[in-house]
Amino acid sequence: MPAVPFRDDVLGPDYRVETISLPPDDEGPVVATLVTLEPAEPTGRAVLHVHGFADYFFHTEYARWWADRGYTFYALDLRKYGRSLREHQTPHYVSDLHEYFAEIDLAWWRITERDGHREVIVSAHSTGGLTAPLWAHERRHPELVAMVLNSPWFDMQGAAWLRSPATRVAIERLGTTRPMREIPRKVSEVYGRSLHVEHGGEWAYDLALKPLESRPVYVGWLRAVRRGHAQLHAGLDVPCPTLVLSSARSFFGEQTEETASTHDIVLDVEQIRRWASSVGRHVTSIAIEGAMHDVVLSRPEVRAHAYAAIDTWLGAWVQEHAPELGR
After folding, report:
1. How far apart are CA 194 and CA 264, in angstroms?
2. Burial of 246 per CB tally in 10 Å (0-12, 13-18, 19+)
3. What is the pTM of this model?
4. What domains can you pick out in the chain, each with its CATH number?
5. How would you classify the pairing of strands 28-37 and 12-25?
6. Which of 45, 74, 75, 283 could covalently link to 35 via disulfide, CB atoms 3.0 to 4.6 Å apart?
7. Serine aminopeptidase S33 domain spans which residues (predicted)?
8. What are phi and psi of 19, to 5 degrees?
């Protein structure tokens, strides 16, 4: 096998990065990017993390938390996101969430076949938290031992008419005939400002890759997401224990940095809890008091509770009881 073209990542020399070439689409060449952090003492276990919408991997504390427990941490910047976005591309646009399966499959091959990990946990956030269960339901890999979903996007938040049959038909029709039509929306910068170190937050990341004002939303992309929602609502059978983390509360009123830092101001947590059991037969749902949309970016005392919840869940259902679950 030829040498793998690893290079140091922008996060520092502890992180190596590699580009995954994918088949071109209508816009031209397509790539994904796999970032890796090795533990001091490998255990043969790994984590594969998938980010959310208008996002990319910069979660160094989260990666280190897993590495400190012996997991090799891999993070995938999907096509047209983050490190994988190219100048000729429409950011984040796909017409079907299943398009992402190609890069997840290739990352999985690297983790299990090339690097030899026999137990892998999939971690995913927001829109990634919808894509990852769809992938796991179809692929059913024997190395998949658990899934951790952080504020997964399980339904369309907002007024009831947005989830009505008429709206669904309209999205289907427009998504077919005018897929690149932008959906008008007003996006507050409050959430981004509550995160970024230059605006009073705690986290340093590239605002060109994760802009404060989010990204445009297109009808064809929304159609893909709503089809994913419909598949989830019909019931998936993800063949491993799944942990669903969310904030305890959502807030959709006038936003401040305080509400953004202590509530999910992006998704409806009641919907997350409603649909959590549709992921599979073994799902644990935990609401973290005071958490924000990306739970592991919450305030220190809050994310400490989140990490404690993950640790307890791992000990109960993944590390100790894996043999009873057919692993």
Report:
1. 12
2. buried
3. 0.94
4. 7-157+229-325 (3.40.50.1820)
5. antiparallel
6. 75
7. 45-250
8. -95, 135
